[in-house]
Amino acid sequence: MKFKYTGRNKEGELQTGNVDAANREAALNILSGHDLVVLELSTLSTNGFFDRVGSYFNRVKNKDLVIFTRQFATLLESKIAIGSSLRTLQAQTINSRLKDIIFDLSSDVEAGLVLSQALGKFPNVFSEFYINLVRSAEVTGRMDEVMLFLADYLEKEYALKMRVRNALIYPVVVVALFVVVAALMVTLVIPAIKPIFEESHVALPIFTRILLGTSDFFVAWWWAILLLVIGLLIFALDYAKTPEGKAVYDELSLKIPIFGELLKKLYVARLAEAIAVLIQGGIPATQAVEIASHTVANAVYRDLLHEVGESVNSGKLISQAFGISEEYFPPMLIQMTSVGEATGRLEEMLKKVSKFYTQEVDSLVGNLVELIQPMMMVGIGTMVGLLFAAILLPLYNLAQAF
Q: How many Å apart are CA 158 and CA 178, to the nearest integer?
């Protein structure tokens, strides 16, 4: 949701702007965290159906954020001031939602807020990892370098996501088409030729009898099946929005053959690089682990990283804390982290871990892309062959009888 606020900062100056938050309480927490005394807070969005649909199509996509970060980094590298850079980006941004956000960022920076504070008002767009890197850059004075790193990081992350997504598009489309064809056969073709089989008294193969029984069931109960599917889909989507459901789905995703291993390697690569960059930016190890947990879109890894952070805070080394689960934190991560801690080159070792697992993911995705097509052709071809054999064999036997 988007809230409009009016408040005063520590100097007593009046400030007005917008902030994104899940609810009113979260908006107040964000604003108070930026040392603002809130005088007025009102919502700018509703929970209506059309508002939700509109916000979905007008959201800031990953691609939009990648482009914004790259352009921002380029302007800062050219020694253009932050305020001027934001005004330039606001004028040339196409996405209306992002355009409004950049305008708010520019207004806040010109009003005296530092960039990390301005970004913190939009937690649904800028991750905690993003904001904390900017905050570390404000301390060290290396804003242009950090923004260039963020641009590279987001571009690599987006490219990897798109590669994985594109690898899954083909099998999903093929399976969907097969389901449609099979449904048409079962509900339209089979009922039309069933009387022929019954009147001829021809012996039917077992898979033909199964197909006829399935056809009768679907024709008689299609409405119940449709309602059941819709109900289960709604339940699954609602359950996925709950913390428990998100945790269950995330854990199941890590146990899927092949894809589970792919996701684990992807998450390890992401968290290793995030921790390395944060520590390099001067953020303490405990806080770096906690922030890195927000870069991993999986509840299982987030919970484990929280445990790692607590262990490090209690005095353990990061390598020892990673040892809580070798199923999710591979031995190579633990060993390289241990070497880095012993030699004082932790950031370097973690970056090597990230590079290794990124290459592993690239290789695995490439192999999947090459293997999926022939596997799908064989699988779908077999199912289509059985489907048509169930129809053509009885017709052939019928023709032989005459």
A: 31
